[in-house]
Amino acid sequence: MMNEIRMNRTILLSGAVLGLISVLLGAFGAHGLEKLVDSDSIDSFTTGVRYQMYHAIVCIILGNMTILNVTDRKRIFYFFMGGITLFSGSIYLLVVDEIFNIDLSSIAFITPLGGLLLIFGWIFFIISLAKIK
């Protein structure tokens, strides 16, 4: 029981922190990036922020879903965290590389890998919901 409470707390706190970071990065993207990068890069950055916020909200919901067993919640959470890190994180880095004139194009393959982790998180979420009796 204590382990489950600790996991719920971790999921909830992670969702809240990811939400805060999304708002901060969204503000930076809306007000700080426009003079530094082109509109395509801003669109990409916005996509990263948006997907991060969507999954932050889902983590907050997931952390409150005691109807799902703790193993399922953990699995979904870890896929979402990995997906957010790789998907949104790589987008942020690829946009920021323009500002610092660093070529990070070699990490572009990480973005779809992160998207795949997010997809698997949703698949496991659906399977877990379908198992509810």
Please outline the helices and strands:
Layout: H1 2-31, H2 39-63, H3 70-100, H4 110-130
Helix pairs in contact: 1-2, 1-3, 2-3, 3-4
What does this protein structure show overall?
Helix 1 packs antiparallel against helix 2 (39-63). The protein has helices at residues 2-31, 39-63, 70-100, 110-130. The protein contains 4 helices and no strands. It has 133 residues and is mostly helical. The mean pLDDT is 94. It is elongated and about 50 Å long.
- The percent range for helix content is over 70%
Tell me the number of helical segments per DSSP (H or I, 4 or more residues long). 4
* Tally of strands: 0
Mean pLDDT: 94
Q: What does the overall shape look like? A: elongated
Uncertain runs with pLDDT below 50, 5 residues or more? none
Name its key features:
mainly alpha, 133 residues, 0% strand, 4 helices, elongated
Nutshell version of this structure?
This protein is mainly α and 133 residues long.
